[in-house]
Amino acid sequence: TGSSKTANAMNSDSLRRYALLSLAAIQLALPLWMIRDHLHLLDTGAEFRFHAQAVSSGSSISGKYIQLSFYADSFRTVEDSSWREGETVYLVIENDATGFGKIASVLRSPSNSIPSYLKTNVRLFLKPGNLIYFNFPFDKYFLEENKVREEKLQSLWSWTDAPPELTAIVRIHNGKALLSGLLVEGKPIEERFSQE
Fold this sequence. Notes:
The structure is a single chain. It contains three helices and eleven strands. By secondary structure, it is α+β, with helices and mostly antiparallel strands. The strands form two sheets. A six-stranded antiparallel beta sheet has the order 8-2-1-9-10-11. A five-stranded antiparallel beta sheet has the order 3-7-6-4-5, with no helix packed on it. A hairpin with a 2-residue loop joins strand 10 (176-184) and strand 11 (187-188). The chain is globular.
């Protein structure tokens, strides 16, 4: 009986070590997978530019960010159908005549023949007029630490005349999107509001 207790204790310790090592491997693999996914989007994603407006700034565990809203976040359907708030949809994105991204169509299932589609959800559907508003999954632009002066950022949402022209640079491929840059009056935000 003494040897069986020792064997059970050793098995229990081995199981705990295995569980701890497995958990550590998952914690290491997840950030690496996310980095690989971002690099893949930067490499293969089609680049689109969207007119944007700064709503506010904030901080999270990931760092300081600017919350954005987009002018091209709605689409008027021609068919008389109903869309539910929160419903998952797939937006086909293309450039308009001025070179900025726009929603070309809305699908209820992904299309294998169109790589430039974005998986998102319906924020609001206005039945009269068949107007659908969407949540874009790239509405936060994270700033590099100590690259941008905080007091200069205030001009993005505390303007008196007209808001500054903001352009979000987004990479889109197979339903995923990555906000890769933010321009203020045509210049990268890090350059426009640098610490120097």
